[in-house]
Amino acid sequence: MNILETKELKKIYGSGETAVHALDGVDFTVQKGEFVAIVGMSGSGKSTLLHMLGGLDRPTSGSVTVDRKDIFSLKDEALTIFRRRKIGFVFQNYNLVPVLNVYENIVLPIELDGNVPDKAYLDSIIDTLGLQSKLQNLPNNLSGGQQQRVAIARALAAKPAIILADEPTGNLDSKTSQDVLGLLKVTSQKFSQTIVMITHNEEIAQLADRIIRIEDGKIVGGGQHD
Fold it and tell me: What are the tens digits of pLDDT across the range 103-125?
């Protein structure tokens, strides 16, 4: 089953001769439980694409369907709620709340939604990511790798339809990067979690089930299943 699909996705900045086609008719699908890497050089459109997939920015035209819902058919408030429930984000700079401890950061999206965390599932995530001894720590008492693991736990906690990871190892050294990516892959498999990761790093991309390549706002390889 396709959990994510884009059709003729376009994002144009400016107009006339100075118009920039950041995305130029992007079509691809991602199946439930798949771990996909979207690879492109700086300026290829991959970050713009991630913002569209996550409903953080609206396209000029085209559609993004997440879990059978055309997300841009939703008004802003409904889109915000849909995003909180269905899309997990892992950013390069962690985006943790500095005044909340590790546990509070992890359950924040669930509590914002007025729900109670699934304790057994949460314990399994915390255990898998090796965070048991850090739950009372504030983010500034953690290493970069530990902060990114908290961000992954937070993204998983709400059981989203997809997790979008934007250069998730961009601020980490190579060994920590390998650890974090290994954990992303393990969590993808263990929790049947769909993950779409943006990266410019070919070595990192090799860990994914499939690599989609983007150049000049167009998909040039890997967009469809074999």
Answer: 999 999 899 888 898 999 999 99
Amino acid in position 223: G
| Domain at 2-221, CATH homologous superfamily | P-loop containing nucleotide triphosphate hydrolases (3.40.50.300)
* Residue recorded with tokens 């499939």: 210
Residue 2 has what pLDDT?
A: 92
CB 208 within 8 A of CB 36: yes
Rounded Cα distance between 42 and 29, Å, is 23
pLDDT tens figures, 9-62: 999 999 888 999 999 999 999 999 999 999 998 889 999 999 999 999 999 999
| Residue at token pair 């993004």 | 64
Domain boundaries, the chain: 2-221
